[in-house]
Amino acid sequence: LLVVGGVIEAGRMLYLQTTLEHATRTAARAAIVRSERSSEPISPAEILATIRRDSVVNTDRCTPDIRYSSGNLPSSTLSIEVRCPFEFIFPLPDRLALTIAAATEMVVVN
Fold first, then answer.
1. HEC profile for the chain?
2. In 3D, which of 30, 31, 28, 33 has the Cα closest to residue 80?
3. In what order do the strands lie in the sheet with 77-86?
4. What is the mean pLDDT of the chain?
């Protein structure tokens, strides 16, 4: 039973990691085409909303970090990193607290 539980938790962690990575890439893609010079510049709140919409992770406890190398301007680099605590289904000691993280970096084009 313990092995089955471990396999289930490992599969869940991999799934949540993959969807969190997808959500950060989607948010970065949305942000790099909407710089301050575009007709509708994107705000950090909109970037976070995109991550929350596209991720199955409970993002209420996540720590996002959104940085531009030189402001939201064309040719600057956008870095998004999100860290979320992994919540086990099976009861385990608190010492086994794990964090899943996803990061992406793209260049603003518009």
1. CHHHHHHHHHHHHHHHHHHHHHHHHHHHHHHHCCCCCCCCCCCHHHHHHHHHHHCCCCHHHCEEEEEECCCCCCCCEEEEEEEEEECCCCCCCHHHCEEEEEEEEEECCC
2. 28
3. 63-68, 77-86, 98-107
4. 90
Three-state secondary structure of 37-62? CCCCCCCHHHHHHHHHHHCCCCHHHC
**CA 104, CA 24: separation in Å to the nearest integer?**
6
**What does the pLDDT read at residue 94?**
66
Q: What is the dihedral of CA 101, 76, 29, 81, to 10 degrees?
A: 10
Query: Measured between alpha carbons, how far is 97 from 89 in angstroms, rounded to an integer?
Result: 12
The whole-model pTM stands at 0.86
What CA–CA distance (Å, rounded) separates 31 from 107? 10
* Whether the Cβ atoms of residue 95 and residue 66 lie closer than 8 Å to each other: no
State the sign of the Cα–Cα–Cα–Cα dihedral 32, 33, 39, 40: negative
